[in-house]
Inverse folding.
């Protein structure tokens, strides 16, 4: 991804070193202590919804896919603009039939559907705002999802979220640093951009996070 791209800061920190430390620090400490979101809540969302012929947007280390209960040999496509992420996750998910695609979720996808499930876990808060701009990513996902498939994931809410004292300070710091761009992200805004592309939307708020499921992709308007 070009350094001048507005989405660049949201993925730039994922170096090989960070990816080695990601699971214990980000999933173990930051998610639980800062955002107060148990890893089990994120895992449950995957276990309910993941299917063979799965697309994962922003797979991180592959930690959640690896523990999702998806059968060995299932088709999994990983999409991320950062080659470090793709190499790391693909290596960890070797028991699946993995395809790695270097691409930006905000731009037209270089992959064809339909996928039976699409996961996007802890990515929306990293995309450049405001929310209507992030809607481009949701529209691109709807375009490649099967009519019977499910789009699911989680994101950290902005100032309107139920943050602790620590959560508010980390939220501000991450937005200032550029890794997050979500101060204006809200549950209502998330619902709006999901419902613009999907007929049925369910959102569960768990402290700082919104955990969502969306079904019934709407046709793209002309």
């Amino acid at each position: 991804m070009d350094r001048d791209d507005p989405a660049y800061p949201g993925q730039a920190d994922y170096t090989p070193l960070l990816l080695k430390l990601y699971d214990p620090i980000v999933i173990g400490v930051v998610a639980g202590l800062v955002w107060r979101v148990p890893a089990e809540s994120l895992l449950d969302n995957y276990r309910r919804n993941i299917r063979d012929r799965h697309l994962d947007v922003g797979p991180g280390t592959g930690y959640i896919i690896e523990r999702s209960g998806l059968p060995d040999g299932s088709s999994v496509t990983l999409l991320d603009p950062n080659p470090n992420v793709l190499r790391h996750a693909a290596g960890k998910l070797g028991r699946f039939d993995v395809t790695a695609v270097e691409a930006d979720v905000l731009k037209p996808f270089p992959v064809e559907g339909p996928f039976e499930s699409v996961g996007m876990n802890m990515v929306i808060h990293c995309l450049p705002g405001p929310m209507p701009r992030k809607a481009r990513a949701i529209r691109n996902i709807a375009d490649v999802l099967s009519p019977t498939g499910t789009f699911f994931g989680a994101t950290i809410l902005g100032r309107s979220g139920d943050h602790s004292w620590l959560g508010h300070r980390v939220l501000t710091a991450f937005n200032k640093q550029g890794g997050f761009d979500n101060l204006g992200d809200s549950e209502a805004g998330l619902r709006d951009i999901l419902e613009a592309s999907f007929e049925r939307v369910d959102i569960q708020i768990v402290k700082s996070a919104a955990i969502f499921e969306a079904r019934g992709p709407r046709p793209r308007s002309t």
Q: What stands out?
A: The longest strand covers residues 145-156.
